[in-house]
Amino acid sequence: AQTVTQSQPEMSVQEAETVTLSCTYDTSENNYYLFWYKQPPSRQMILVIRQEAYKQQNATENRFSVNFQKAAKSFSLKISDSQLGDTAMYFCAASFGTSYGKLTFGQGTILTVHP
Amino acid sequence: GAGVSQSPSNKVTEKGKDVELRCDPISGHTALYWYRQRLGQGLEFLIYFQGNSAPDKSGLPSDRFSAERTGESVSTLTIQRTQQEDSAVYLCASSLGASGGYNEQFFGPGTRLTVL
Question: Which residues from A are below 8 Å from B100, CB to CB?
Answer without folding.
Answer: 31-33, 95, 97-101
